[in-house]
Amino acid sequence: MRLSDDPELRDRALAAIERSVDRTDRIVPQLLELAAVERPEEDSEQTDLTLMMHETVADLRVLAKGREVKLETAAPDRAVWMRTSPFLLQAAWRNVIEKAIHASPRRARGAVVLDSTTFVIRDEGGGIPPELLDRVRTRFTRGLDSGANGSGLGLSIVASAMQPLNGEVKFGQGRNGEGGRRWN
């Protein structure tokens, strides 16, 4: 392999390689997670939804901090028990919270709310355009705010994880037009 003598060309090529590697680092785990949620083998078990919500948000605080998004949580002061698949439910919650973080502008606030067995995410992103609402759960469908970083797999993972749980996912506009996602 011969390297170019032009330092600007080398820098652009190196930057392109780094972007490609970063994208691969994001998409491969998502593809593996999508395959896992489409073939769930885990049985349901009694799961503390309050604890799961706090653990899931804690896992994503570094991402939120890096994007300067403040995540707030609200949940009952007690355990909320449900018989469910912890793997599937956490995969759905993690992907939608991650999507909300990425959709929010810098220095925004996001809310993760658990009320009994309803889980609500609010973000300050622009929401999902009406023309994408029918397709947003389809693999590789990317929203307008995804930029070059989105793979278009996150919400299809959510939909695939919720299906065997007999759960429901709703997307809508919140107050002032901010995005919102709701699970029952």
UniProtKB/TrEMBL annotation:
It catalyses: ATP + protein L-histidine = ADP + protein N-phospho-L-histidine. Transmembrane segments: none annotated. Pfam families: HATPase_c. It comes from the Bacteria. Residues 1-184 form the Histidine kinase domain. It is an enzyme of class 2 (transferase). Keywords: ATP-binding, Kinase, Nucleotide-binding, Transferase, Two-component regulatory system. Its EC number is 2.7.13.3. SUPFAM superfamilies: ATPase domain of HSP90 chaperone/DNA topoisomerase II/histidine kinase. InterPro entries: BphY/WalK/GraS-like, HATPase_C_sf, HATPase_dom, His_kinase_dom, Sig_transdc_His_kin-like_C. This is histidine kinase. It comes from [Roseibacterium] beibuensis.
